[in-house]
Structure formats: structure tokens, C-alpha cells
Amino acid sequence: MSETELVLRSTRVVTPQGTRAASVVVKDGRIAAVLPHDAEAPAGARTRDFGDDVLLPGLVDTHVHVNDPGRTEWEGFWTATRAAAAGGITTLVDMPLNSLPPTTTTAHLDTKREVARSKAHIDVGFWGGAIPGNVKDLRPLHDAGVFGFKCFLSPSGVDEFPEVDQEQLAAALGEIAGFDGLLIVHAEDPGHLDAAPEPHGAKYADFLASRPRASENDAIAGLIALARRLDARVHVLHLSSSDALPLIAAAKREGVKITVESCPHFLTLTAEEIPDGATEFKCCPPIREAANQDALWEGLADGTIDCIVSDHSPSTADLKTADFGAAWGGISSLQLGLPAIWTEARKRGHTLDDVVRWMATAPAALVGLGRKGAIEPGRDADFAVLAPEETFTVDPQALQHRNKITAYAGKTLHGVVRSTWLRGRQITDGATLTEPTGELLERPHRG
Ligand SMILES: [Zn+2]
């Protein structure tokens, strides 16, 4: 298949050794070599020169609610993977809940894979779910290739995916540690949520008060203690409370196997700017104050927070009522994560190398996908081509998301995705998308 040989040139290629002018040689869908910019192309190879546009590894988003099958009016594999491709993402890992069925048994996983197969424009993997009563299903799901298991410590928002109590959490984590699996946790303590005032009405401040930082902090402290006791791998999903950073940093120093993600909305939006009734900004845990956001960026800079992933969790417009108590909690940002984060990162003195580490390399490492997340020989030839100095204003109607509701409407962002490439083939030129060529991924065997 030497006709698949391709050379991609840019004056700015983001590699693990830094950004430099380079020519990336692609063969049979993989990166064969990273050569000097002026290297001669192999005979017969096609060449694309991106000039000064930046060649990044395709991003890896390990936190996406695709909701397919069952709630496809909210999203679906077709629209989610198109939106991801348009946003420079080439791999996503689907969350086990909000679809019907949830991914809590191997039969349910088979159903999900069947549905995803013909619709995936990018590569797609799956998380399994840990819910009360399914400990016996965890090992079979692991053997079937899920990347790990998600659980909630407080109500998830859907009845078919209940939260686990502390005893059930310990049972699930003990089982998962037995096969060196990964547990990913929605860490809000239900006791603190019950004790806080009920959210109702249009005021964002009331909603924020209903999900206090202490709820996250205590849930994370408990999780650290359990991971230490069981010598198990745990991952904190969507960290919002910066107060938990010292606990996490100390646990990491001590050798507890804990990783942490945060999300574009916590890192680019603030409680102070959210208008009353604007429930497109509602998610759990909530977007907090500007000072909290500053501390989260420090946590990224010092490595306490490992990854940035979208937590894309859309719904139909009718579920986003103006009442913060009743509205669906979830923010849609799959297509916008890269420009949203880049816009804020550049203001704070970070580079695209940092953004790539947080949004591609670290999430790939989290799920053990050694073939994704970096531009170096042997990895898949997945790329995003970005014009980082160019700006655009977010027009919800122009998004590929199934529902055009987004907390980023009207924002002017830096970073236009010019094209996205999957295993050496361009899947979007920024305007149109090719037919689906994504593959369904399984967790690679470790060791
Ligand atoms: Zn989520």
C-alpha cells in the first residue's frame, strides 16, 4: 500500500520534543518518520504543505456523552463524531450513561458497538459503568475491551444509572483493582448536596450554593483514602473545586494512583458572567468563581490536573428550561473545546505544546492508547491543522452538534481548525466531512 505514503509539512509541528518545522511521513495510516522541514519526499509520495498553520496530533476526548442508542434526540454517534472531527478531535471515549441501554453489561456494550459502527467519523472507544449490583459484570466488560468504569457517588440524573454508596464503591474498586482496571468517578458527596439549599428558580447564585465545594473536596478525600487502601487506580472526573488541589497533589506525591481531569467550561467560563436563567451553563459540579478558575489553571501548570476533556453532555432545548433546579445539567462543547482552551491558555502564557499535552497526550495515556495523542513515529497518523492566530465568533447554528445550544454562543475564540486527519486520511477540510471511517477501539492489553 505504498500509494498511501504521504508527507505533511508545516513550519510548526507540535511534537513531544517541542514545536518545530518538520515534515511528517505517513505510511499505511501511521507516522513513519518526523524529518526536517526541507527533507526530500520519498519518490511517489503525495505532499501537503500547511505553511505556517500548526500541525497537532488529533485530540483525544475521553469524556463524551453520545447518548446513542436511546436518547439520540440529544446527540448520537453520527453528529457527535462529526462535531468532534470539526473540532480537531480524532478519538473519543463514550460515557456509559444517558444512552439506553447504559454500558453496564457486555450485552449492552455489544448493542452500543453495533449502533456506533456505521456512524463513527472518528475512532470511538467505550467506558463501562459501575452501578449497584453489577460487580459481576465488571470483569467481563474489562475483557470485552472497555477502557475502565465510571461510577457516581451522588445521583446521576438518570434513573437507569444509580449512584453507588461507600460500600458498593469499595466492592467495585476492589474488583477493578483485581484486574488492574481504572475507576473514573463523578466525585460529589451526596451528604453535602442533601444538606445544601435546594436549587430552584433562575438565579445562578442559588444553583452554585446548592453544589458546594465541600461536596467535591470530601468525596475526593474519601476516594484517595480508598485508592490508597486498595492500591487501586482512580481518576477524578470534571474537577471544579480548586480547594481539592492540595489533597490531590499530596496524594500524587505519596504515590497514590490518582489522575484528574478538568473541562473547558471550568477553565474558560465563570460564575460571575452567567446570566440568570441561562441554564446552558448548568452542569454538575458547577462552574465556579473566577478565583477558583485561576487556581485550576495553576493546577494544570504544576501537573496536579492531568487532562482537559469536554464532558460534552447535550440535551434537547426543552430540557434547558430557565429554572436551574429543573433544567438538564450538561454543557455542549465537543466542537469548541480546542479553541476555547487555546483562547484562555494563550492569555495565561501557555503554549500549544501545553494544550496538546492536556488535550491529546495525557488523555491518550489515561486510557492506555499508546498509538494516539502525539506526533512521533509508530503512532496513528491522526492530526488537526490549526490556525492559532485566527479568530471566529461562535454561531451555534454552524455547529455539528445535534442540538445547537451552547454556553459559548457569541464568544470570539482564537484557533480555527482547518482540517482533521484520521490514520492518514483527511476527514474534514473545515467545511465538509467525508463518509465515516472511524474504528471502534478496545483497551489495549497492558504490560
Ligand atoms: Zn460527564
Automatic annotation (TrEMBL):
InterPro entries: Allantoinase, Amidohydro-rel, DHOase/Allantoinase_Hydrolase, Metal-dep_hydrolase_composite, Metal_Hydrolase. Residues 54-426 form the Amidohydrolase-related domain. Pathway: Nitrogen metabolism; (S)-allantoin degradation; allantoate from (S)-allantoin: step 1/1. Its cofactor is Zn(2+). The keyword Cell membrane does not apply. It holds the Pfam family Amidohydro_1. Its EC number is 3.5.2.5. GO terms for molecular function: allantoinase activity. Keywords: Hydrolase, Metal-binding, Zinc. The keyword Metal-binding applies. SUPFAM superfamilies: Composite domain of metallo-dependent hydrolases, Metallo-dependent hydrolases. NCBIfam families: allantoinase. Belongs to the metallo-dependent hydrolases superfamily. Allantoinase family. This is allantoinase. It comes from Streptomyces decoyicus. The lineage of its organism: Bacteria, Bacillati, Actinomycetota, Actinomycetes, Kitasatosporales.
